[in-house]
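Action item from last week, closing it out:
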Amino acid sequence: MGAKLSGPGGQGGKTISQNSEINVTPFVDIMLVLLIIFMVAAPLATVSIRLDLPPAVPNNDPNPKEPVYITIQDTGSLFIADKQTTIETLAADVCAALQPTPNCRDERIFVRAQPEVKYNAFMEVMNTMQGNGFFKVGLLNEDIE
């Protein structure tokens, strides 16, 4: 029984050439596994926010209600429209501003603040509104003049 030996004697005078090509099969396998991992992980990274959008049909009310704005100034003072209020009487003053409506807690309230207002003052107003049953609160991002 004979055996093939490396070198010119074992291959009938032929020399062994080196294989200088890159084997890409493991690289492709790794890339496909990473692609699957990212395809599974990407939908889990999205955050959803529930929005209450207005209805698509126009409101044909001839006398639309004026919205109620709560304004927080950088000095810490609160205003409902042009009337000054405090954090303790905020809920009662909002209901007074929405007087013709039977259930004032179902109406939408808009909160706006000057850019210099501290975050804790803003959150105090939001927590007071939520604690008193006002859950339809809109945030406005506009310049207060």
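Closing note: The domain at 68-139 is CATH 3.30.420.270 (Nucleotidyltransferase; domain 5).
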